Amino acid sequence: GENVEQHPSTLSVQEGDSAVIKCTYSDSASNYFPWYKQELGKRPQLIIDIRSNVGEKKDQRIAVTLNKTAKHFSLHITETQPEDSAVYFCAVRGYSGGGADGLTFGKGTHLIIQP
Amino acid sequence: EPEVTQTPSHQVTQMGQEVILRCVPISNHLYFYWYRQILGQKVEFLVSFYNNEISEKSEIFDDQFSVERPDGSNFTLKIRSTKLEDSAMYFCAASNYPGTEAFFGQGTRLTVV
User: Which residue, B89, B77, B88, B103, is CA-closest to B23?
Assistant: First the structure.
């Protein structure tokens, strides 16, 4: 099955600086790569996603890059703000041909924004 | 933003008892999922459901688990005989096409005592 590694497990940055979180995956057939933000006690919320036919996607302060050859993708947050503090999960959806493939999640990165 | 609604928000049950967790997906979504998250850990896929049948299931989804869509709207997860290690947050999710984002419900916290 799919194996997703996420680094770092904890990231502390000064407010206004950038944060980068990286994930690698094992199955070259995987074709969908979302990122979720989870605040304490809340549901995971999709913040950005990318599909395998695209190398980069940006939405305001958030961007995701995908390197299919190397099987890794990264989340970039610029001009970080206190409300960006949360746990961020990367996820990968494979394609088995059976229809509704589930997401395989990374272990999460606890992002701490220091004021 | 579209809502996936889950009930109850918190369920406490004794070991060995059956529990049913309920989800009302977004009306035009066709693919339904259950995930679980043990406290402080990552989100884990349990099962996906499409066209009134299981599409994919993980190793976690053993014979103690079952899913169904009894009335065309609710999507349920049943755990037949709960174990202490079933204690977790269970999230329902929905999407309108395989390979698109999944909208997560707010979760049901299951505590097995």
Answer: B77
Which of B4, B38, B42 best tests the A interface by mutation, with the highest count of A CBs <10 A?
Answer: B42
Element spanning A64, H or E: strand A62-67
Q: Which residues of B touch A34 (CB under 8 A)?
A: 101-102
The answer to whether the beta carbons of residues B113 and B13 sit under 8 Å apart is yes
Compare all CA atoms of chain B with the CA of A34 and give the residue at the minimum distance: B101
- The reply to whether residue A100 touches residue B100, judged by beta carbons under 8 angstroms, is no
The rounded percent of chain A whose pLDDT value lies above 90 is 78
Rounded CA separation B7/B64 (Å) = 20
Across residues A93-115, what is the average pLDDT? 83
Quote the pLDDT of residue A100. Answer: 63
State how far the Cα of A60 lies from the Cα of B84, in Å rounded to an integer: 43
How far apart CA A112 and CA A47 sit, in angstroms, is 17
Interval A53-88: pLDDT, tens: 889 999 999 999 999 999 999 999 999 999 999 999
Task: Write down the residue that tokens 């309920």 correspond to.
Answer: B22
Please measure the distance between the N-terminal and C-terminal CA atoms of chain A and give it in whole angstroms. 41
With CA atoms as reference, report the closest residue to B66 among B82, B79, B84: B79
Check if the beta carbon of residue B77 is closer than 8 Å to that of residue B96.
no
For chain B, which ranges sit under pLDDT 50?
none
Maximum pairwise Cα distance, chain B: 38
